């Protein structure tokens, strides 16, 4: 059996009285692209925020490369190869593109690799990040995570608010990241699109997984299509 890079077992997240995640179990094989899809409020962000150390789980166990990381803080996880691109990008608009990348990691090598992958960021390195288009800002947010040279990257709604053509570009980049051997966990409301890009999918509703399987099978499953994907 291949060793799993990520396992999440019976994860629970609460905010006061709100039970956002109610016993979620999923896993990712090394080099795979796994997606968590579901409507607004289904618990997707809470799950990946728990994995990346941004939110403290109420229960359950998370392992990364065989080590228990259930209560490891985010900065230590970044140093060990697990990084998240947060929802809403959260780049610093008054800093330059290059300064934003340096916040990810000051290492020159990682930054040079990101410029190679995103020539548009190299061209705009001295510009204020806030002057970039929405798609460029998303590339910058992904680039800032990649400078840490992660083995697992968590992406929270990378297509949010972007024009269809730009969404295509972002999914192209996600495919390249996966092709380079980095494992990807992708959270998306754009379920059809995410499942098309993924190896394995988990459909969430009300903080629980209601369907899971190879992404191609979920795309073919009438119950999933009718309830979560809608007509094309
Ligand atoms: P979205 O696409 O809107 O981010 P989501 O599927 O990622 O949705 P979560 O953001 O994880 O879902 O939210 C799950 C539930 O937890 C929702 O009912 C939400 O209102 C609630 N919730 C999320 N964050 C908090 C918080 N900081 N305090 C209180 N409730 C929260």
TrEMBL record:
Question: Transport: is it a keyword of this entry?
Answer: yes
Q: Would the keyword Cell division be found if you checked this record's keyword annotation?
A: no
Residues in the signal sequence: none
Sorted alphabetically, which CDD domains does this protein's record hold? Answer: ABC_TM1139_LivF_branched
Q: Which PROSITE patterns does the entry mention?
A: ABC_TRANSPORTER_1, ABC_TRANSPORTER_2
What Pfam families does UniProt report for this protein, alphabetically?
A: ABC_tran
What keywords sit in the KW lines?
Amino-acid transport, ATP-binding, Nucleotide-binding, Transport
Which GO molecular function terms does the record list? ATP binding
Domain ABC transporter positions? 6-231
The entry sums up its family as follows: Belongs to the ABC transporter superfamily.
The molecule here is called: ABC transporter ATP-binding protein
Source species of the chain: Occultella gossypii
